[in-house]
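Morning!

As promised:
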Amino acid sequence: MTIQTNRRGFIAGTGALVVSVALPGAAVPARAEAPAALATRPPLDPSKLASYISVNADGTVNAYLGKLDMGQGTDVGIAQMVAEELDVAVDSVHVLQGDTDTILNMGGATGSSGIWKGGDALRNAAAEARRVLLDMAADKLGAPADKLVVDNGVVSVAGEAGKTVTFAQLIGGKWFDVPMEWNKQIGIFLGVKGQAKPKSPKNYKVVGKTFRRRDVAGKVMGTTEYVVDVKPAGMLHARVVLPPVAGAVPTSVDESSIKDIKGARVVRQGDFLAVAAPREWDAIKARKALKVAWSDARPNLPGDAGIYDWIRRAASNKREAMPDVGDIDKAFAEAARVVEATYEWPFQSHASMGPGCAVVDYKPDAITTVWTPSQKPHYARDGVANILGLPQDKVHGLYMMGPGSYGRNDSGDAAMAAALISKALGAPVRVQHMREEGSGWDPKNPASVHVSRAAVDKDGNVTAWHFESKAFSRLDVESNESQPAHTLPGMMSGVPLKYTAAFGIPEESYGFAAKRKAWETVPPLLDRSSPLRSSHMRDPTGPQVAFASESFMDELAYAVGMDPVAFRLKYLADARDRAVVKAAADKAGWKPHTAATKQTTGGVARGMGVSFSQRSGTRVAVVAEVAVDAGTGKVWAKRFVCAHDCGQIINPGLLTMGIEGNLVQGASRALWEETKFDDKMVTSVDWLTYPILDMKEAPESIEVVLIDHPEIPPTGAGEPSMRPVVAAIANAIYDATGVRLRQAPFTPERVKAGLA
Amino acid sequence: MPKYELNVDGKPHSVEADADMPLLYALRDDLGLKNPRFGCGLAQCGACTVLIDGTPSRSCSIPVDSLKGKKITTLAGIEKDGKPHKVQAAFIEEQAPQCGYCLNGWVMTSVALLEKNPKPSDAQIREALSGLKCRCGTHVAILRAVKRAANA
């Protein structure tokens, strides 16, 4: 086995060509160095081919991706798409990511858009590069471009043996000077086209095949450099000091309380408070020892038990409805019967594997650097620039592998804290949060209440569906850390919260004659610096909305005397939607039933549940099989069958593994995850108070059915299979026990209460 | 500050530290080993796992003054003859990690499990790995990897 152990293997695809620089006495990763000389590269410009693709002197290709792979193989998929268009080997394509100086801002990891949008841009760029290279080759070989063939980066003239030229000979080590048609967007929707049209899928050689991940060996052998390992010379370790009660601010700080800790210092800016020391353990000790008098804050939080009534009672600050389908009021007025149910979803924490970490080296007269595991490194760069009052081009952002990221976790706050402290102390600073900050103070997935109603006629046909959510916004703070207002250190140092009211609706194709789907949001619990401020967490609002809407479809099916699969197949109007439901049910061995089957042996009830959802064009159906221990109330999500249609499949093997991760993380959220809090503060602050799925509860089997549509451009796969999991489990619990759980998560206590 | 002798990956080291400083900080900051990682500081997750005399242990919660005469093994010390340990080879083959931050716990605990029980059942693997945390949801890939290593 060949093990590539270069430190920057995660940034650039194959390791061999990547430069790794360690300064004397320090372990500082350099920028993602490309083999093609960066010094001569034209300025980064979205309307230039050189910003997306270059060919190195050795014939390998660089693809500059402003998305980010974080361990699911998005980079491999991009390499395949680029290799396909250029007719080069997949292994010869380096995918460079995460360096704000050399890579455009395509939003980072955002909206499951890595392949969907990033792949589209890079595919178009690679196709254009091929066209330009063939024009160059035509000149060189004295043959028309349409007589040329390309194999593995070698251009030859059809029928004329020996007349060849390589991509490397044509442009290796030099930069394309070719315009691209740019859609004028920066971030997630950045799009670009050239004159060339990408290949027809029927000619694909590598798209649609499984290639292996490039980051695995370094991670397993322990050679990959993570953000926690970055150590510029003279670096100080810092810890933030947050209040014991939400909303409290320091009224006095006794700096003498840490005078015996070697080199320990206090940093205070407004209400932002931190300690730093040369040794990490000393910083941790100083955090604990520092005597702070806090203001007498009384946030009067409603507590986790009271949150749903609080939401119901709160005046909403925004309502948004999709245009009605049909005449919904008439349908309900004429209904023979109305079915209605309410569902409740808690705050949840990103609870990343390690708490947030970042390193900032503030250099007022040169370039300030931020090493960040943020999934949106360009925005982290912007945030550091903004909080330090520096122009963007004086800050260099470098993505480093971090402790897991599933949206806007606490790493953005760590970067802003490191920036403030680095500036205050005039030294490079590494901030790592403690566990209680990673679980207790990260931006949360919003709590919500959902009311679903359906009108049924005298023959049992569903004639109308009305779905309303009332919830905290999914954006108390933005899904990126680009402005101080969106970060805890920013707010604590005096910048007010900048709030956006936003939520979501079910994405589906139920062909009911009348439909109304809407949401309303309630204001945040505190006007700033709240440990319950909300932001994006993997598939923002998706799991909760689908929990409610797809649990309801199950209830509705039984209410009209139908099998839950047959019900969906009858009402779903879109053929691809029906296809995923059918595929999952067939693979699972679904047995049609019109009431809970309640199969119990030896005190264990077993059942199957189905659920379906769309997300930005991707369709997923999940059948979950559960075993419910009637004595303990414990639910084991034993088996998942997932049918997945994201259009064109780039890499089926890695897609399947990404879906597995979604299903297990989704099961964890369904069964265990709830941020608890009392009237003063979040009390879910570690793994005991915020439990997640344990290995003993991991599914016995996960079967994934991929439905490929080579003719349909790929949509996303990073999040869509998270969406239907919760409802599939809820529906399986109902099938097993006859108990309908309408409040998540489905903990042993709730299941037992339901069974009683 | 007192000095402590530590035997790490077969080599002796001397560390000056507070008696109550957890081993994790000696390994990371004094010895420059980066594989044990801080996840919780509470012995609840396993990201900091090392073997102490062959037993998987949470280095975030073991004071540096309690290790006299003990053999400490980190991820960097389980390769044999410059080759990946069979558990590492299996984790690579199965492409088990996503973010990989938690990996120490799973790999080191699996190494210790297979030392004691070379052919564990599914239930025994789950039991041995219980309590370790993975937030990316790679549990089923980890199970495949440990089974592959047991069969190697």
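Chain A touches chain B through 62 residues (CB under 8 Å).

Hope this helps with the figure draft.
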